[in-house]
Amino acid sequence: MTIHAMPETATHKALSGRVALITGSTSGIGLGVARALAAAGADVVLNGLGAGDEIAALQADLRAEHGVKVLYSGADLSDAAAIEDMMAMSVAAFGRVDILVNNAGIQFVSPLESFPPARWHAVLAVNLTAAFHTTRLALPGMRERGFGRIINVASAHGLVASPFKAAYVAAKHGLIGLTKVTALEAAEADITCNAICPGYVWTPLVERQIDDQAIAHGVPRDAVVRDILLAQQPNKRFATVEQLSALALFLATPEAGSITGAALPMDGGWTAH
């Protein structure tokens, strides 16, 4: 597993002495955010799925690349007790969690009348309820220290809907609501809470979807990208993990202290319709 160095920026090492916990951070968007925060000097707690040897290698690479401490929790985010253990482990190891990034998410697509109730509960548990648990557990320590940054990775589907994604759309709308309530309750304690709302982001998972849909529909990959996946995005381009990570990094810095309760689209104009 290769770690790519983040470019030097004005925020380089701006997070030295901070501790960041990022859910769903062993691949994709979450891993990109973890890399960005580590490059800025934060110690990090990773969470997510993956083979033990790959995760160990990822931890070692992050430590070597950025000189930060890196822990890993395999907590099942559908289990409240496991989340409590993860948060307690992080505080026991580092004494604090300054930056919380709720990124983990799952998806299931089905018409409403045939949507399996078990799938509904699973999507809501990971995409929304887990963020409630991590937030409620992180807030007391943030209040004690007078600083906190909570960043929820929502979705353009937290602002608009698409058919056949009832649980995902409901969860992401709920996550934006949770973001606003958290921001209001914590505003005077120098704790901010914001949601990033990406459209389609270029990840290996999306790349596999392109190939699958090209085969299923019998059309070229370019047509899948433009006419199916990016049909609602006016710029017809995927956001990149690096772009999203740069926004998350900025939201974690002191310079973003007056941004709170915001749902920030990174969707190529999708929600401007």
Task: Please characterize this protein's 3D structure.
With 273 residues, this protein is an alpha/beta fold. It folds into two domains: 19-200 and 240-259, NAD(P)-binding Rossmann-like Domain (Rossmann fold, 3-Layer(aba) Sandwich); 202-237, no CATH class. 47% of the residues lie in helices and 14% in strands. The chain has eight helices and nine strands. The chain has helices at residues 28-39, 52-66, 80-94, 117-145, 166-186, 204-217, 221-229, 241-252, and strands at 19-22, 43-47, 70-73, 99-102, 148-153, 191-198, 201-202, 239-240, 263-266. Strands 3-2-1-4-5-6-9 form a seven-stranded parallel sheet, sandwiched between helices. The radius of gyration is 18 Å and the shape is globular.
Properties at a glance:
single chain, 273 residues, alpha/beta, Rossmann fold, 2 domains, 7-stranded parallel sheet, two-stranded parallel sheet, 8 helices, 9 strands
The SSE string, one letter per element, is EHEHEHEHEHEEHHEHE
Residue-averaged pLDDT = 94
Count of distinct strands: 9
Number of domains: 2
The proportion of strand residues reads 5-15%
Which CATH top level class of the largest domain fits? Alpha Beta
Write the CATH architecture name of the largest domain: 3-Layer(aba) Sandwich
Distance between the termini: 39 Å
The major β-sheet equals: 7 strands, parallel
The structural class is alpha/beta
Keywords: Oxidoreductase
GO molecular function: 3-hydroxybutyrate dehydrogenase activity
Enzyme class: oxidoreductase
EC number: 1.1.1.30
